[in-house]
Amino acid sequence: MMTVEDPVCRNTMPLENAHASQEYGGWAYFFCSTHCHTAFKLNPERYADARIPAAFSAPGDASHPSRKA
Ligand SMILES: [Zn+2]
Q1: Rounded to the nearest whole angstrom, what is the distance from the C-alpha of residue 11 to the centroid of ligand 1?
Q2: Distance between Cα 57 and ligand 1 center (Å)
Q3: Which of 22, 23, 47, 52 is most buried as measured by Cβ atoms within 10 A of its Cβ?
Q4: Residue, of 62 and 24, whose pLDDT is higher
C-alpha cells in the first residue's frame, strides 16, 4: 500500500484514502480533504517544498541565492 503525505496539513494517509489530488511542478500532491486541496491551489508555492523538484536541488543553485526571486 502506498502512503502519501498531505502537504498542507502534513497528514499521511493511504493513497486510496486521499480525497483529492493535484499536479504541480511535475509532482503529484494528495490531500486529505477538499479544504486542504483548496488551500494548496490558493498558494501552491507555500506548500510545494513538501516535494522538492530536482531542479531546486541541482548543484550550483545554492551558490547563487541572489538569483532567486
Ligand atoms: Zn489535509
Answers
A1: 6
A2: 26
A3: 47
A4: 24
Q: How far is the CA of 49 from the CAs of 7, 10, 15, 16, 17, in angstroms?
A: 8, 12, 20, 23, 22
Q: What is the pLDDT of residues 24-61, one digit of tens each?
A: 988 899 999 999 999 999 999 888 765 544 444 445 44
Distance 23 CA to ligand 1 centre (A): 16
Residue corresponding to grid cell 506548500 = 47
Per the structure block, which three cell numbers stand in for 7? 502537504
Tell me what pLDDT residue 48 has: 75
Q: CA-CA distance, 58 to 65, in Å (whole number)?
A: 13
What SS3 state is found at 31? strand
pTM attached to this predicted model:
0.68
